[in-house]
Design brief:
alpha/beta, Spore Coat Polysaccharide Biosynthesis Protein SpsA, Chain A, ten-stranded mixed beta sheet, 52% helix, glycosyltransferase, Nucleotide-diphossugar_trans, Glycosyltransferase, transferase, Glyco_trans_2-like
Length: 467
């Protein structure tokens, strides 16, 4: 007899578990088939296991798979993928498999409609739509639903990528043939706390000869603010990069690397970064750690490529960048190290620098992080900060010219004429000492038009003329 294998894995899901289990028991089974239910617990500390046992005692189709320790505590891969691997090995050629989160539901007609769809078109996998519901209010706030049935095969993997991509991001709301899953390697997916479901889905899609998307919503997804999707983890930013790389690999595997598809992927990546950085700023992390994450994110080759294109100039992305910039500027000075991190973060963000800082090297700005921060806030007030930092900073001879330029510009921003002239004279002397006499003479001539009796500028002109 053909079996349908239902798999659930949860950790501390007792609050919603009964609803999910009831939905499994209410699913209508097609004639000539039977359903086997695998209930896996990932080391829960609430009443999850008790609820599992209560249901399993009443329904012999349920098999319990219990782990004493959570996989993160045990430093192991997410256990559901090993479970699925074992199920697939033992399954029949005509068997099916689906996955349900412990806080979601399937509608009773899910199996009948999905199997009819798959059998009619001989599909390796089928996806359906989902209702999105706020858990707290039980209010439906949207749907993920395709307006028409879609069948994908061969060149369609490339042609319709931007349309079916949204269905590649999750493991639920899908029905798989177990014969297709036998070719999958879920090792990489099991390593990721955030994004594991997308890694699983991409691996499956990579093995498909064809698939379809049914134009009906047969699944309910409940939105929880405490879900891992909305909570910062130290692997969140890394997952964005890993998933982008895996998507690129998927396109290569299906001869789908087109300008349109690459641009679409960068749009997805940009959207992920907006969400990731929003969560980062609100996370319970020290400021230094947050700055280091920002530097890592925006120094990555994928992000640098993104910043070159039109997506980075979009309203949503620019808003996110400006919010990050504003947050960085509000961080109080807590020592030189964090000040330097602030400068590095601003540079990584490619923020539009104040005119005072244009053309100055990263090396100099990192030597004067407090000055740089003050310039970004209010350049008119930066000169005293510059003086204070200058007393503490040692910098190589090759940065002296930039240093003098910075002093000159800060004086101009403050409209301090005497200080501006002071730094200009030092800069001219530097040029003379470094065989840049034409630059020195030109600058002296310009100042003599304003200050014809200034002895220092007269001396510079005479020295340059005698050379």
């Amino acid at each position: 007899m053909i079996k349908v294998h239902a798999v659930m894995c949860t950790y501390n899901g007792a609050k919603t578990l009964r609803r999910a289990l009831d939905s499994l028991l209410n699913i209508e089974i097609p004639k000539g088939m039977e359903m086997k239910i695998y209930l896996e617990d990932d080391g829960s500390t609430d009443d999850t296991v008790g609820i599992y046992k209560e249901y399993a005692e009443k329904d012999k189709r349920m098999e319990l798979i219990l782990h004493k320790e959570n996989h993160r505590v045990a430093k192991k891969a997410l256990p559901i993928f090993e479970t699925i691997g074992e199920i697939v090995k033992k399954s029949g050629e005509e068997d099916f498999l689906f996955i349900l989160d412990a806080d979601d539901e399937y509608k009773p007609e899910f199996l009948i409609k999905m199997i009819q769809f798959m059998e009619r078109y001989q599909l390796d996998m089928a996806a359906c739509g989902s209702d999105f519901i706020y858990h707290d209010t039980n209010q439906e706030v949207g749907k993920r639903l395709f307006p028409l049935k879609i069948l994908v095969e061969g060149e369609d993997f490339s042609k319709y990528f931007s349309q079916y991509h949204q269905f590649m991001r999750t493991v639920w709301a899908k029905l798989y043939r177990t014969s297709t899953l036998r070719n999958c390697d879920f090792t990489e997916a099991g390593k990721h706390f955030y994004g594991f479901d997308t890694m699983f889905a991409i691996e499956v899609y990579d093995q498909l000869k064809n698939f379809g998307i049914l134009d009906e919503s047969l699944h309910k997804y409940y939105i929880f603010q405490e879900s891992t999707s909305y909570i910062w983890t130290d692997k969140r930013a890394q997952s964005d990069v890993v998933l982008h790389k895996r998507y690129l690999q998927f396109l290569e595997n299906h001869n789908a690397v087109t300008e349109e598809n690459i641009n679409y992927l960068f749009k997805v990546y940009g959207g992920a970064l907006v969400e990731t950085t929003r969560m980062l700023v609100n996370a319970q992390l020290d400021e230094k750690s947050k700055l280091e994450v920002i530097i890592d994110i925006f120094s990555h080759e994928y992000t640098k490529e993104l910043l070159k294109g039109p997506i980075a100039r979009g309203e949503a992305f620019q808003k996110s960048i400006n919010q990050l910039k504003d947050w960085i500027l509000t961080i109080e000075s807590k020592g030189r190290e964090i000040d330097q991190k602030k400068v590095e973060a601003l540079q990584a963000l490619r923020c539009e620098l104040n005119y005072v800082l244009y053309g100055l090297s990263s090396e100099l700005l990192l030597k004067f992080p407090q000055t740089t921060m003050q310039v970004m806030k209010d350049a008119k007030q930066a000169l005293p900060v510059f003086y204070e930092e200058s007393e503490k900073v040692d910098f190589p001879e090759e940065l002296l010219e930039e240093y003098l330029f910075l002093g000159q510009r800060l004086a101009a921003a403050k409209e301090d004429n005497d200080t501006y002239i002071y730094f200009s004279k030092l800069l001219i002397e530097y040029w003379i000492a470094n065989n840049k006499k034409e630059m020195a003479k030109k600058a002296a001539d310009e100042f003599l038009q304003i200050l014809p009796d200034d002895s220092d500028f007269i001396s510079v002109k005479q020295r340059c003329a005698s050379c």
